[in-house]
Design goal:
This protein has a domain of 115 residues: 2,3-Dihydroxybiphenyl 1,2-Dioxygenase, domain 1, CATH 3.10.180. 14% of the residues lie in helices and 32% in strands. A hairpin with a 3-residue loop joins β2 and β3. The longest helix has 13 residues.
Length: 323
């Protein structure tokens, strides 16, 4: 089955600590604020044609607002909405013209865990520029990882109804692609339904380390884990907590799957192939955010900072965001 979506467009979150979180992503993290007002901010990656790859909304509770995917054309959007409806999937809204930056045409629905997913097409492309490696800022949004209390159900949904293909897996997580990128979506086992992390692509390993060095100089920076290199996907990683406790990753060299027919998914060990990454409370050779408790990590900037705590269950499940 051909994928019904062709790329990951953006991730939207809502946070109570709006100003500091906006300052973090528009500052040391290296995204560019392109639209917004006092209650919402849209961020672009300078080398990506997407109007925005991350958005932050002011709210009383921290939540995942939605995950946005791109689709080929309006006919494909309409067909997908019709097929999902016939399959009993709850739609948040019917296909219509979008009122967000760049316009376009799309609709939103709830996945089996209650997350809001948007599928859209025709969003205006923004001008890009070449990023010098020494700038060490994100060039694109690469993937998003979510935790589910019923991972198999969620995996079946994204494969059977949206056409995602399994690339590889580790004991507690499956990696899924909708284009050549090894994974645009990964689904982890979890004791609660939450956002696990959002991964921003940088130009090279050197860029990743330069960017991490910049983040580490900020007094608010908390390292979750890194640097390291995953086995599944072969990508390098460095994970950080943002000011609200959400996990964001710098990643480089994600494996590309050019020939679907020649690719055979396989199980990988959940290890850091470099042996350099460690999250406190876990064996030194295990890599990647824990399936359901990223808060186990301590910050590396001093004991004066309060510990990060992640919500046990996302309060935004089955609730469509207002924007």
């Amino acid at each position: 089955m051909k994928a019904r979506v062709d790329h990951l467009r953006y991730v939207g979150v809502a946070v109570p600590n709006f100003e500091e979180t906006v300052d973090f992503y528009g500052g040391i993290w290296g995204l560019k604020r392109v639209e917004g007002d006092k209650d919402i901010a849209f961020f672009a990656a300078e080398a990506s044609p997407e109007q925005y790859v991350y958005r932050i909304r002011r709210a009383e509770e921290k939540r995942l607002d939605l995950i946005g995917f791109g689709c080929e054309d309006e006919e494909s959007v309409d067909a997908l909405a019709l097929d999902l409806g016939r399959s009993g999937v709850k739609l948040a809204n019917e296909p219509a013209n979008l009122q967000t930056p760049g316009g376009g045409y799309g609709f939103r629905f709830f996945d089996p865990d209650g997350r809001v997913v948007e599928v859209s097409t025709g969003v205006a492309a923004r001008e890009t520029r070449e990023i010098d490696e020494r700038e060490a800022i994100p060039v694109a949004l690469n993937h998003v990882v979510v935790a589910s209390t019923d991972r198999r159900r969620s995996e079946t949904f994204y494969q059977d109804l949206l056409g995602f293909k399994l690339s590889d897996w580790i004991p507690f997580m499956g990696f899924f692609r909708c284009n050549a990128n090894h994974h645009s979506l990964a689904i982890s086992d979890g004791q609660a339904t939450t956002l696990n992390h959002v991964a921003f692509e940088v130009k090279s390993i050197d860029s990743m380390m330069r960017g991490a060095g910049r983040v580490l100089k900020d007094s608010r920076a908390r390292v979750m884990m890194g640097p390291g290199r995953h086995s599944a996907g072969d990508n390098t990683f460095y994970y950080f907590f943002d000011p609200e406790g959400n996990v964001s990753e710098y990643t480089a060299e994600v494996e590309q799957i050019i020939d679907d027919d020649a690719w055979t998914p396989r199980e990988h060990p959940p290890t850091d192939m470099w042996g350099t990454a460690q999250m406190p409370g876990r064996p030194a050779n295990l890599s990647g955010p824990a399936p359901d408790d990223p808060a186990a990590a301590a910050n590396l900037r001093g004991s004066d900072l309060p510990p990060v705590r992640m919500p046990r269950t996302d309060p935004g499940l089955w609730v469509a965001p207002p924007v």
